[in-house]
Write a structure and sequence with these properties.
By secondary structure, this protein is mostly helical. It is built from three helices and no strands.
């Protein structure tokens, strides 16, 4: 199989991971700062935001195929 175009795929993966990480951090910040409004759902939305942050970190750290 050809390795042509591998750089673009790897760069897109890192970029998407960075975007997911930043969006997750912003969402987590707004979730924590509006905890009084969210009430009982604060933990649920915090978990979802942390999950998004973790997915972003994994995408940024993961090594693409050689």
């Amino acid at each position: 199989m050809s390795d042509e175009g591998g750089f673009g795929i790897g760069l897109a993966e890192k970029f998407f991971g960075f975007i997911a990480f930043v969006v997750g951090l912003f969402a987590l910040y707004y979730t924590v700062t509006s905890a009084s409004t969210l009430g009982a759902f604060t933990g649920f939305f915090s978990f979802l935001c942390l999950l998004l942050v973790a997915v972003g970190l994994v995408l940024m750290i993961a090594k693409t195929t050689e």
